[in-house]
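Sequence in, structure out. Go.
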Amino acid sequence: MSHHPHQDESTTPASAPPHYDLILVGGGMVGATLARACAGKGLRIALIETRAPQRHWPAGEIDLRVSALNRASQRILGRLGVWSRILALGASPYRQMCVWDGVGGGTLRFDAAALGEPDLGHIVENRVIQLALWEALERCPDVTLWCPAAIAELTHTPSGSHLLLTDGRALSGRLLIAADGRDSLIRQLVGIETEGWEYDQRAIVATVQPSQWHQETAWQRFLPTGPVALLPLANGHCSIVWSATEARAAELLAMTDADFAAALTEATESRLGPLELRSPRAAIALRLQHAKQYVLPGLALVGDAAHAVHPLAGQGVNLGLLDAAALVDAIDRALAHGRDLGGLWALRHYERARRGDNLVMLTAMDLLKRLFSNALPPLAGARSLGLTLTDHLAPLKQVFMMHALGLRGDLPRLTRVGH
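Output:
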């Protein structure tokens, strides 16, 4: 994708393409959060997105793609003025979490009440989060939404980027931010490498109706072929994420609805009684991926463009929103000190704040996946003992719960109350 000069320079209009302080590529949950968080700072912001979010859907219909937003994410979205809209569009709180081992039988329960918290988080459809943010962006005079738009060519230099879109329009900017997902085109075009591996697993997502009340509890059972989770929805249904080996996933996807529901009921040990399938099934290939660097002069990666994690705990979007909040901190610091927005002085603050943290989370998820996908009896026994011991050790459990809520460590300013 090299840069081709126009052949007919004589007929090209002399006006230069519009120039922005920030160009965000990707208007999904993380990109839209970042654009909204940077609004009102006196910056010219462009957001490039291939398709506008879905505006309407039938009442009662639940999207297959949901996220488990923790308290830190809720605070970020609250500070940006979109949390009330998310609640109005539909969010399902979960107050407890029950994790148990499919082989050894050990159990760990988290209860929000033990921390004096109203809940542990909310299950929210991805489209709800994106729409609430998008509506807010449409009210921001300093944000220009380039949508639908796709990138044909990128010329990136330390002093800025020039983008040519597939429809012939062009724009340039000082700081280019890639929020374009795990197969990030921007990351590829600037040559940032990633490390990681494909898991021999797929996550099957669907909506089911349990015959018993879900108790506003997130249920997760670890099986040798991968974890299965039932996430409670406000209408009494559950959203499921069933990670299974390629071979097992192929079997599950080929089953009739009734057979799949029976297999799922068995996999969850009938915790909520017989389950009934209420939607189509979709499958997502799983991988662990981490960018070797998050920043270059004039460029930053956020969200899945920087890291893809096993969806074991639905943490992906929480990590991405923390990236967005940390990058805002770095931009604020540059503005406060009169420094260059795209310079490494500012961007390294962001990379230092997030790369180590994300690596810990990626590694933890990977270790959990490996630990629990092993059916060896000694390991299964130790694992179950570990779950049960943790369940009985209040201080250790508190640490895990604060971690689950996202309220630990040195957090970005947007996650703090009263700042």
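Check: The two ends are 44 Å apart (CA to CA). Residues 344-372 form the longest helix (29 residues).
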